[in-house]
Write a sequence for this structure.
């Protein structure tokens, strides 16, 4: 063994131990999942609206359907919200006073996305591994009432004002809203356009029931009706014949894959013989690689639909389907809330073409698909 004669470096301080993985960004993902669930619950328990109205709340004020919330549950949910900076807890108050935290305003604005993720689609993610293979036998539940309500919350900030502006430039007397969800859009259109009537169509009984309640509560049942129906298989009917504007928001992706989408879009020209404009708004598939600028909703929306084996088109793919199905885009408006949203203003091709062979074929195919 040969000892080195060169000077030895002075021993340095022992390297700092790396922080344990149990605290830090990955660990925070775990707590974020709990906080996301707490946001969804806080929406339903009325906590968010109380705080947004400028109020404070005590843990024992929380109610679900008139029943008090268990103090342990209240404390656990509030802890998760406090961890996320969404509320501040004043523990010196024996009843645990809750005030908005520094991140409350953002959480309130974005609450619809959390409610959609957790209450509307939670089971899709719970069973992600089971749903991964391309087969049908895995059952999961989506809460369609929550999907309808969360869609309304997501659309209220930007999409609805955009609809207001576009509709203000159109002359119309009767509107049909396809996949009408909560009925909120139709109610808004009725209130802004006193002479207009409308009909909502939705596949989910929970949405139809909710929309019926909303319409009745607004006193609009004399101008608005809602019925259960599959938009993919609409046939000409008395309540559709005078419709001159169709709206369809956050459901167009259900028309896909492409062959089916072209058939549905073509068929709409038959089911609505007096249609002059269709306003179709949906979130399109992003082709960006996820990164630090990935906005809320994108990963959840794309993953949930992948797990449900629902194809999400890009904006360009929508354009191809419109052209093939006889619709001309007059404009495309892009939204940041929801991120990746596009409102297409579409005009049907001339009525002469509506009687042509492609439309007749679509009607036959739609009828046989319905059997
Ligand atoms: C994400 S929600 C959007 C609700 C509403 N359009 C809004 O903007 O708030 C989608 C709605 O489309 C409905 N839907 C899905 N497929 C449908 C179909 N084939 N026919 C009719 N409604 C459908 C769902 O039941 C659900 O209420």
């Amino acid at each position: 063994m040969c000892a080195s004669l060169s000077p030895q470096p002075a021993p340095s301080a022992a390297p700092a131990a790396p922080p344990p993985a149990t605290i830090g960004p990955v660990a925070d993902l775990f707590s974020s999942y709990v906080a996301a669930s707490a946001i969804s619950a806080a929406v339903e328990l009325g906590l968010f609206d109380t705080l947004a109205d400028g109020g404070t709340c005590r843990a024992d004020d929380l109610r679900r359907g008139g029943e008090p919330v268990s103090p342990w549950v209240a404390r656990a949910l509030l802890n998760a919200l406090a961890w996320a900076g969404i509320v501040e807890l004043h523990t010196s108050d024996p009843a645990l006073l809750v005030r908005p935290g520094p991140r409350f305003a953002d959480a309130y604005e974005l609450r619809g996305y959390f409610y959609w993720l957790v209450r509307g689609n939670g089971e899709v993610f719970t069973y992600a591994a089971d749903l991964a293979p391309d087969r049908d036998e895995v059952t999961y539940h989506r809460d369609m009432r929550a999907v309808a309500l969360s869609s309304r919350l997501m659309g209220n900030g930007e999409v609805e004002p955009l609809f207001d502006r576009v509709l203000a430039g159109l002359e119309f007397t009767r509107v049909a809203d396809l996949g009408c969800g909560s009925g909120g859009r139709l109610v808004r259109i009725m209130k802004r356009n006193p002479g207009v009537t409308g009909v909502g169509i939705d596949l989910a009984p929970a949405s139809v029931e909710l929309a019926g309640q909303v319409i009745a509560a607004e006193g609009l049942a004399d101008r608005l009706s809602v019925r259960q129906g599959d938009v993919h298989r609409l046939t000409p009917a008395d309540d559709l014949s005078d419709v001159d504007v169709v709206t369809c928001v956050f459901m167009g992706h259900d028309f896909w894959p492409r062959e089916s989408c072209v058939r549905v879009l073509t068929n709409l020209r038959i089911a609505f013989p007096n249609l002059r404009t269709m306003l179709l708004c949906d979130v399109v598939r992003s082709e960006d690689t996820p990164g630090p600028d990935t906005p809320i909703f994108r990963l959840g929306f794309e993953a949930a639909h992948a797990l449900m084996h629902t194809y999400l088109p890009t904006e360009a793919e929508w354009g191809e389907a419109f052209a093939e199905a006889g619709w001309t885009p007059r404009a495309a408006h892009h939204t940041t809330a929801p991120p990746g949203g596009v409102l297409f203003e579409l005009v049907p091709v001339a009525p002469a073409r509506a009687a042509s062979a492609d439309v007749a074929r679509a009607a036959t195919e739609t009828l046989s698909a319905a059997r």
In short: Residues 144, 147-148, 151-152, 155, 179-182, 185, 201-204, 207, 230-232, 249-251, 254 surround S-adenosylmethionine (CB under 6 Å). The chain has two domains: 27-127, 144-287+298-348. The chain is about 45% helix and 15% strand.
